[in-house]
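pasting for the record
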Amino acid sequence: MRISGKIVKANIDEHLVFGWASVAIDEDGKTIVDSDGDTISISELERAAYNFVMWGRVGGEMHENIYIGTLVESMVFTPEKCAALGLEGVPNGWWIGMKIFDNKVWAKIKSGKYSMFSIAGRAVREEIENE
């Protein structure tokens, strides 16, 4: 499973880049379907994000070339957290910030060649019946 999110902010001097790692439900309340036709619940995304923060925290280039950067910011926006923070119209998803150490990768981010985060994960596909 691979899910992508757009990079929305960068701090050029600090080699910091921020954006959605993954969105489960968009700002209009619609479930996001990935390029393989899969969805992820916000609770599963939250669990995956916490595991990454606890055990991973390093970025790779195109799911390879591991340790081109490290996680510096992470928050999963669930319906409960959005309500508690008074945030309306915010996607339910995982927001991250990465510090990029690799100058070649940073150049690709600055040029726009890399404009999205991509998370890769393992999952068990389950058929969900429509009600």
